[in-house]
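Page 37, continued from 36.
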């Protein structure tokens, strides 16, 4: 039987300089004691460089095949034992193992592990709006096996393959290495926690594939009934068990259509989902099993039925938890850019996609394989389409039972080839936050469905940043207030639910997450679109808006409790609840009762000087907040945005409307940077008028971004009259000239 030695203690770390020859270990100094799991750049998450880890392990009798297993190592990883080079792995999110070979010896053994998160362009991701962590941030094991064992080196898998059909068929296969004469593989199936097996089969180790059958299978049915089976596979030589592995699995059918959306076991299921990154305050990406359990419990509490595990492979425990709780999973690889001509990067994308699928295909919770996220941010190309098609076909060769999907940026046009490759499509859309208006979601979806009637469409990201310390009576775009996040979601989500053809949506994001490039209002280093704070301590008000949609557990939540100091004789109180009738009590006196649906707004609620106790209830469900009336507005609640942006709708007059200011046949600030750069006269004008934009390399990397959006990012540098005049000058340039120049 195999044995596991957990390698947690006894580690050291040092910054190092890798040798030009990969097989030669670095020789750093200034070692520091640490414990695994460990994030090398925890103190400075934007730091990218190589670190060397060192561990000394005492082995009494190192006989038999031995392997080092890493749950994940950030970036490029190289490993040595006793000076012997064991190999490398590229990609910071998947499990991998390396053979120790003859490197182990009796007594003390030195293990060296290089972790280098320096982005060299030959592994994914090459960028992204989340931290590029490094280090040995998931568990490490030293595994010893018999000569004959399940293959531990096949893409980090267990060596056991379990596939199922809804009729109860279980397709089993295994990869076995070592001498196989006289060795049999025994498969035993168990129903849930039952001690007695529901099926047993044996095959020669040299021909391990077999189909088994479970009569009247109990289906895995999402949140309703997440029933699981498990398979134990043993390699037997007579009465001796040489090796043993076990995997959970489930029976279920999935289908997705362009007109009706997603079906689980033949029943329609609207995907009511949230997305999540793996990191959190205090530990970054080195999350414990208990912390993963807490995250999934919060997703259960809000009532979601699905989770997008973005943008990479998550810990095995997270997929197990989704199986057990019934959460439908969108699993994906960190392909966030796909530049033409970079074959090494593409090969690594295929490697990470293969690892993701082969390591996790047994999980019934996983229903969608995601092959890319927003890769068109830098433009599209025929090579890009070909490579995405190749990823789609790779998925089908590894797992033909699940649909492929991708997440397109808003600027991917409806007729793009990216909308014709995978089995279903998601769009990352931020109307009413980064661009457009809150009422643009419905028209966008209707137009997409009209133009692509045979492609299932859903929303893979949408959201708005907020800081729980910022508040407004009249919230607006860019104020980062908790109140605007609520307004945003109240406007966006009903547009999705009103359209039967939309397969569903994933809120971006369930939790705030770290991103070193971010500055959100009064918060630095975080993307604050989460419904829950980075430390998981505060459920923002918008959390309860979705709980009112999704949860059956009766509750009442009074919003605005962190907007505790209010100015004025009266205020507005908003209540979220999944109950139909809400009563509001102010300072012990009943103020009003309302009948409604999810959102209840009480206006002109009187405030006395000092503290006011506001209670809302519906039968036994109750919530209470304390609001203090103050003489002057609380300035700490207000974010003074240095780049508030220009609202061009304020420019419209009876004489100059949208068609006059932004004509289709002439250029304007509404045009995309790629189109402007392709028009010599228009680009020459911009080089003269806004050199800070044309001279910024980032502008050239965003061909699908409008000029107005870029201006609004640095709007503090411009007077509004200047921007109006720039638009007028662009209006003088005909787009016909661009076509003639081409």
């Amino acid at each position: 039987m195999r044995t596991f030695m957990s390698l947690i203690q006894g580690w050291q770390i040092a910054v190092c300089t890798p040798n030009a020859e990969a097989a030669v270990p670095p020789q750093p100094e200034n070692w520091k004691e640490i414990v695994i799991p460990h994030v090398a750049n925890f103190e400075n998450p934007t730091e990218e460089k190589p670190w060397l880890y060192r561990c000394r392990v005492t082995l009494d009798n190192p006989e038999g095949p031995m392997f080092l297993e890493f749950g994940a190592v950030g970036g490029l990883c190289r490993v040595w034992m006793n000076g012997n080079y064991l190999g490398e792995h590229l990609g910071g999110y998947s499990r991998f193992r390396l053979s120790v070979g003859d490197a182990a010896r009796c007594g003390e053994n030195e293990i060296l592990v290089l972790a280098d998160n320096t982005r060299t362009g030959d592994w994914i991701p090459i960028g992204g709006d989340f931290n590029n962590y490094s280090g040995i941030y998931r568990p490490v094991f030293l595994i010893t096996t018999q000569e004959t064992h399940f293959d531990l080196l096949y893409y980090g898998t267990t060596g056991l393959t379990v596939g199922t059909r809804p009729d109860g068929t279980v397709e089993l296969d295994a990869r076995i290495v070592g001498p196989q004469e006289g060795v049999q593989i025994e498969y035993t199936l168990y129903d849930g926690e039952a001690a007695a097996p529901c099926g047993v089969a044996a095959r020669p180790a040299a021909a391990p594939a077999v189909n088994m059958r479970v009569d009247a299978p109990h289906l895995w049915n999402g949140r309703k009934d997440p029933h699981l089976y498990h398979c134990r596979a043993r390699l037997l030589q007579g009465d001796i068990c040489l090796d043993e592995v076990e995997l959970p699995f489930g029976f279920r059918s999935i289908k997705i259509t362009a007109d009706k959306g997603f079906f689980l076991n033949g029943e329609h299921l609207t995907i009511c989902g949230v997305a999540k990154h793996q990191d959190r305050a205090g530990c970054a990406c080195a999350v414990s099993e208990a912390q993963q359990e807490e995250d999934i419990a919060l997703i259960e509490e809000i009532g979601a039925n699905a989770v997008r595990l973005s943008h990479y492979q998550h810990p095995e425990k997270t997929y197990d938890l989704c199986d057990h709780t019934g959460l439908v999973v969108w699993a994906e690889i960190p392909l966030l850019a796909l530049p033409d001509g970079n074959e090494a990067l593409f090969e690594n994308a295929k490697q990470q996609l293969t690892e993701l699928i082969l390591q996790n295909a047994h999980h019934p919770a996983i229903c969608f394989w995601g092959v890319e996220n927003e890769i068109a941010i830098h433009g599209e190309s025929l090579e890009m389409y070909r490579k995405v098609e190749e990823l789609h076909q790779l998925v089908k060769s590894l797992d033909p039972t699940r649909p492929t999907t991708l997440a397109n940026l808003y600027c991917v046009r409806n007729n793009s080839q990216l909308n014709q490759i995978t089995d279903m499509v998601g769009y990352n859309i931020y109307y009413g936050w980064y661009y457009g208006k809150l009422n643009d979601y419905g028209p966008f979806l209707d137009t997409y469905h009209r133009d692509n009637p045979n492609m299932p469409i859903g929303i893979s990201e949408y959201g708005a940043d907020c800081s729980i310390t910022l508040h407004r009576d009249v919230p607006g775009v860019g104020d980062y207030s908790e109140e605007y996040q609520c307004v945003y979601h109240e406007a966006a989500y009903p547009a999705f639910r009103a359209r039967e053809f939309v397969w569903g949506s994933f809120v971006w994001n369930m939790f705030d997450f770290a991103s070193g490039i971010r500055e959100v209002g009064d918060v630095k280093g975080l993307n604050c679109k989460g419904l829950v704070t980075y430390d998981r301590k505060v459920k923002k008000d918008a959390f309860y808006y979705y709980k009112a949609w999704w949860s059956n557990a009766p509750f009442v939540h009074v919003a605005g409790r962190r907007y505790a100091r209010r100015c004025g004789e009266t205020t507005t109180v908003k209540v979220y609840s999944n109950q139909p009738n809400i009563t509001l009590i102010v300072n012990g006196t009943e103020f009003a009762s309302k009948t409604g649906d999810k959102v209840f707004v009480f206006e002109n609620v009187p405030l006395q000087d000092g503290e006011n106790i506001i209670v809302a209830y519906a039968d036994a469900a109750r919530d209470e907040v304390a609001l203090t009336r103050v003489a002057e507005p609380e300035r700490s609640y207000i974010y003074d945005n240095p780049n508030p942006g220009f609202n061009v709708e304020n420019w419209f007059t009876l004489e100059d409307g949208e068609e006059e200011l932004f004509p289709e046949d002439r250029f304007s600030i509404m045009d995309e940077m790629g189109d402007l750069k392709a028009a010599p006269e228009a680009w020459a004008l911009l080089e003269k008028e806004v050199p800070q934009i044309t001279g910024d390399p980032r502008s050239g990397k965003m061909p699908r971004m409008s000029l107005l959006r870029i201006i609004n990012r640095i709007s503090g540098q411009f007077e509004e009259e200047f921007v109006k005049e720039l638009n007028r000058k662009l209006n003088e340039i005909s787009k016909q000239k661009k076509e003639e120049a081409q």
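The longest strand covers residues 50-59. Flag for discussion at group meeting. The mean pLDDT is 95.
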